[in-house]
Amino acid sequence: MNHNVGWGLIGASNIAREWMIGAIRAQPGNSVVAVMSSNAARGAAFAASNGIAASYTSVADLLADPAVDAVYISTTNELHAQQAIAAAAAGKHVLCEKPLALTIADGHAIIDACRQAGVVLGTNHHLRNGASHRAIRALVQEGAIGQPLFARVFHAVKLPENLQGWRVNNPAAGAGVILDITVHDVDTLRFILDAEPVEAIAMTPRSTLATELIEDGVMAVLRFGNGVLAQLHDAFTVEYAGTGIEIHGSAGSIVGRNVMTQQPIGEVVLRDSKGEHVIAIEHTNLYDHALASFNEAIKGASSPAATGEDGLRALAAALAVLESSRTGKSVLVAV
């Protein structure tokens, strides 16, 4: 039997238009029934161009729509907590964009509100849904590289002009590369290593794209509880670096190229005593996988691909990176 879920979009965003609407509609019984934008004209145009029946200018009005069973939140970062908590109070399941919140306290408040309301909470950390990252996790978990020792993530890109805006000029909205990209790196490493980051140290260069108070590049090192040291390079200002992830262990290395992306692309290579082997991967849409997992969670069959707790732990490590970059000191990750 199909499990009918009517989705309300809180935020008429690019990611909703480009990825999430299609992923929602790809799930049996799922439909997008409403969108909320504080800009009435933008919301109406978004609804019309995407075949959405209802457009609202307030979260309260969208949550009052009986056709809405679940919400996808993709507003600016400082709004996530209040909107997620309101959705939970209205009995709606919540899939929230990263970062889950801007503070640890707000992250806990979202988790508590959803638990008390008995609704599903997921964080939209899309990368762990990629076939490449799931293959890397499986290799690590089965001992293909022995004991994991080091990791490296390179996720430096050129932020497209249409996505800049608040991400590079509004500190109050939770702008900057650390809360936009580093938080994804952390979640991906947590997923692959099945371990928690416990300490961070980081440095940022002088901003060249963002305003002076916002970091548009960072290099960081995370220490994980299992002893792995992970180096991260994230930026909004580098156009031709490509992206990737490497996991190096006592008996081999895994190298993923062009895998830190929304696109279902990239290659994974295993290097060990037998040589270099390309791992066979059947790529699928990352957001389809995330929505399928969320639907299973609504049915009570499993958990979302990334839970609220996953979102909180990724946020905690990103905040430690941010604090370290500003103080010049090593910072413990506190959840």
Automatic annotation (TrEMBL):
The keyword Oxidoreductase applies. Residues 133-255 form the GFO/IDH/MocA-like oxidoreductase domain. Keywords: Oxidoreductase. InterPro entries: Gfo/Idh/MocA-like_OxRdtase_N, Gfo/Idh/MocA_oxidrdct_glycsds, GFO_IDH_MocA-like_dom, NAD(P)-bd_dom_sf. Residues 6-125 form the Gfo/Idh/MocA-like oxidoreductase N-terminal domain. Coiled coil: none annotated. This is Gfo/Idh/MocA family protein. It comes from Undibacterium arcticum.
